[in-house]
Amino acid sequence: MSASIELIIPGLFKLPLHEFDSGFLDRELPALNYILRYATRVNNQVYEFEPMLTESLGLSGIQCLPLAHAYRDKSSTGDAAHLLCQAVHLKPDMRNAIVLPLDNTKETKDDIILIINDLNNIFNVDCYIKAVSDRLWLIHLKQCEAPDNYPHYLSVLGKKADQYLEQSKQRMPWYQLINEIQMFMHAHEINQKRFEKGLLSINSLWCWGGGQLPELHSKDIHWYTSDDALNRFADKLGISNSELEAFGDKDVRNHAICIELSILETLKSVRDENLKLLLSRLEQQLFKPAIHRVKSQRCSLKLWASYRYDFILSAFSSIRFWKQPQSLHHFSGE
After folding, report:
1. Which residues 6+ apart lie within 8 Å of 23 measured at CB?
2. What proportion of the chain, given as a percentage, has pLDDT over 90?
């Protein structure tokens, strides 16, 4: 089977293009513009990156990846007893609650640690929560099964959470536990102090990544991403993986999947990065080497970007010389 490349870059077409001058988009991103100009556009129905990944991996019937396996100890028992979680602010909005990110300051990080330490003391019979990386936690449930319908933290930020909370009623022990946790967090003295300072309260945990580890039909895949949880999850699946920076170093010999979440993280205000520099980095790190592989190795390429179209490119796509030049600002009105 010939080599193939999939670029999964959610948020690419949601960038605030008014912040870029058209000259930058037209001149400084030639490899991305090559894809936009020559690729075949295929209607897309998948807008979240987890379903994109499951489809890329050939998995069916899975919408949310069981990413909690990425941080489980080998000695851990109970496949359905772990979730990843991050502290969030649930903002009431009429009949719904909207999930908002917390700021990235040292004060907020320290406040989260104090609240979670108290959660561990109060709910020690029901669960244990431990830190696995900066602001990311693993919760081990002792009395109930973990839900497997919660999407990734980045996918739910800024959106309504009620549909997921309602679905949780089908797992009543979990539903009762998370409600009790939320009530405890809401009333915590730290949140009174944060209210007096005009800061968002730390009033909920967003949990995701539950479920059984799936079996892959093929492991002839190399996964490129700088997301620690995704690389660890690839290890659990038996998929070879590298940091995203390594994508341009070697020829593509199999099915290469590149997952770039920096744009999504920046748009969701999880990280602070200059968007112009970010696009320039992606041009050099992803788009340019991807086009080189398409031309030199005759790889196929697919760009997923949470947009109404996917973009499919082959080594022969450029024979459509009559197609007009394209850049991101050409899609701003669609």
Report:
1. none
2. 67
Which residues does 16 contact at the CB level (< 8 Å), separation at least 6? 275
Question: Where do we find the tokens 């050409």?
Answer: 330
User: Token digits for 59?
Assistant: 């998995």
Identity of the amino acid at 303: L
As a residue count, the chain comes to: 334
Mean pLDDT of the 132-143 span? 92
Residue 257, SS3 per DSSP: strand
Residue of 266, 260, 255 whose CA lies nearest to 225: 260
3-state helix, strand, coil in the chain (%, to 5): 40, 20, 40
Distance CA(109)–CA(166), nearest Å, equals 29
CB 168 within 8 A of CB 174: yes
Task: Classify burial at 100, counting beta carbons within 10 Å of its beta carbon; exposed 0-12, middle 13-18, buried 19 or more.
Answer: middle
Q: What is the DSSP string of 155-210?
A: HHTTSB-HHHHHHGGGSHHHHHHHHHHHHHHHT-HHHHHHHHTTPPP--EEEEE--
Please answer whether residues 19 and 272 qualify as being in contact, where contact means their C-beta atoms are separated by less than 8 angstroms: no
**Residue 304's closest CA among 64, 22, 57, 65?**
57
Angle at alpha carbon of residue 158, lines to 175 and 230, rounded to 5° = 75
Two structure tokens written together for 253: 């010999």
Which DSSP letter does residue 39 get?
S
Residues 89-105 have pLDDT tens digits of 999 877 788 999 999 89
